[in-house]
Automatic annotation (TrEMBL):
The protein's name in its UniProt record: DUF4880 domain-containing protein
Gene Ontology MF annotations: sigma factor antagonist activity
Residues in FecR protein domain copies: 125-215
Pfam family, one: DUF4880
FecR N-terminal domain boundaries: 17-58
InterPro entries: FecR (IPR006860), FecR_N (IPR032623), Ferrdict_sens_TM (IPR012373)
Top-level taxon of origin: Bacteria
Length: 328
């Protein structure tokens, strides 16, 4: 029994080391196609591999602010000491170097403001850019429709496609004929259905699964959930919610080129528009972010929607390079 526990502990430690190594490699080097393919193979080895990488990403997220604070502390210390203090200068330089590496790595793996795809998204098999939608026949029985700014990779067993990994974004899965089960891996959890239609959305630090038709099961490290038509749930890498009723027509409206908002806070409306529009809209006047907005809008006419928001909430607009729009 002890030998088995020790073996499991050693395997977990090995996966953690490998995940951190991949994160460093993706963060600090120029990623080649060979690197990307090797990373995809490693990540697809098992759910434990995928989960280990998610945990490594989370650890880096937690570490980055600490490194930044250390760098700021070193700068303050340097400004208060004589410039002739060589040892202090060295410490300050080291602090700056660590912070610079951290900032460069974070920008590479998690781009600022989402202005370009991350390393993980670039390594995906299929990817859409802002405003693009794409349909893919994954198997004879399964069609996957990718929404804007979405990255997915095939999951195969013995050369046969059995599912996808949703790296980021949103995908709708239509199963036209009874199958042994088609799965969607996201944040270390797996959603499986044998028939019907469902959607999976992974933005930020949460994944949302909604069942449009049929039934499905979500297998999360903390437990299993079963959803029926008209139900959805959300989960993070360390916790899973419970099923609740949802308006699947509104959730699926993007497939018809429409965005539907029902008493949605303006900050969330802006965040959603940012997924479909190149560049980035920044709500500078944050006190209006909680005000609610309702409506149905054509995805192709989002600039018209932004003009309407500007007038309705009496906001000034300032355009910057790279498609950045400041509203305040």
């Amino acid at each position: 029994m002890t030998a088995g526990v020790n073996k499991a502990s050693e395997d977990s430690a090995r996966l953690e080391r490998e995940a951190r190594a991949w994160l460093r490699r993706l963060r600090t080097t120029t990623v080649t196609q060979v690197d990307a393919e090797a990373f995809k193979r490693w990540r697809a080895t098992s759910e434990r591999h995928a989960h280990a990488f998610v945990e490594a990403q989370r650890a880096w997220d937690d570490l980055s602010p600490v490194l930044s604070r250390l760098h700021q502390s070193a700068q303050r210390e340097a400004s208060q000491r004589p410039k002739s203090d060589v040892s202090l200068a060295r410490r300050a330089w080291l602090g700056g170097a660590v912070s610079a590496v951290a900032a460069a790595g974070a920008a590479f793996v998690w781009p600022p403001m989402g202005l370009w795809p991350s390393a993980h998204e670039r390594a995906a098999d299929f990817r859409t850019v802002a405003g693009e939608q794409r349909q893919i026949a994954m198997t004879d029985a399964v069609n996957v429709e990718m929404n804007t700014m979405t990255a997915v990779s095939r999951q195969t067993v013995n050369g046969v496609t059995v599912g996808i990994e949703l790296v980021s974004g949103e995908a709708a899965i239509d199963i036209h004929a009874q199958t042994a089960g088609f799965s969607v891996l996201s944040q270390g959890a797996k959603t499986i259905a044998s028939a019907g239609r469902f959607q999976v959305r992974h933005t930020g630090d949460k994944t949302c699964v909604s069942c449009v038709a049929g039934t499905l099961a979500v297998y999360h490290p903390t437990g299993k959930r079963v959803l029926g038509a008209g139900q959805m749930l959300e989960y993070a890498s360390d916790a899973i919610g419970t099923a609740k009723a949802v308006d699947v027509a509104a959730l699926s409206a993007w497939r018809s080129g429409v965005l539907v908002f029902r008493r949605t806070p303006l900050s969330e409306v802006i965040a959603e528009i940012n997924r479909y529009r190149p560049g980035r809209v920044v709500l500078v006047k944050q006190d209006v972010g909680a005000r609610e907005m309702s409506g149905r809008f054509d995805i192709r006419l989002l600039d018209v929607v932004l003009e309407q928001i500007q007038r309705t909430y009496d906001l000034d607009a300032r355009r910057l390079p790279g498609g950045v729009l400041l509203l305040g």
